[in-house]
Design brief:
single chain, about 130 residues, alpha/beta, five-stranded parallel β-sheet, 5 strands
Length: about 130
């Protein structure tokens, strides 16, 4: 079975860019998208993905609250925060919500693929 990655960001361009990038690095993965925390929770509860890549700054329900709700209902789902927020309190809140990894957007080209490879061990590893 192909692993599934759910990309959650309220900016279409960010989701498209990540989807295109992941499609080349993880060609065997199923890629899904959500534009809000509410949509992410709904999708994750209906069909839990293997990994969720979640922005914190989402309208209405932020990414930390969405992660908390998803982890409460589907604890096996790995949530990776991809965010601009560097403050330690954001990282602490994300950890308390059950987030597996915290990647800053300014470091994503260096850290994101190795993080996903670690969380999706059955994927083909293309470098």
């Amino acid at each position: 079975m192909c692993p599934t990655i759910l990309i959650v960001d309220d900016h279409d361009a960010v989701r498209t860019s990540l989807r295109d990038w992941f499609g080349t690095v993880f060609p065997d993965c199923t890629l899904a998208e959500a534009s809000s925390g509410e949509e992410a929770v709904e999708l994750a509860l209906a069909r839990p993905p293997d990994v969720i890549l979640m922005d914190i700054g989402l309208p209405q329900m932020n990414g930390i609250e969405a992660a908390r709700r998803i982890k409460a209902a589907a604890p096996q789902v790995q949530v990776v925060m991809l965010t601009i927020h560097e403050a330690p309190e954001y990282q602490a809140d994300a950890a308390a919500a059950g987030v597996t990894a915290y990647v800053l957007k300014r470091q994503m080209y260096r850290e994101l693929i190795p993080t996903l490879q670690r969380l999706l061990p059955s994927t083909n590893r293309h470098n």
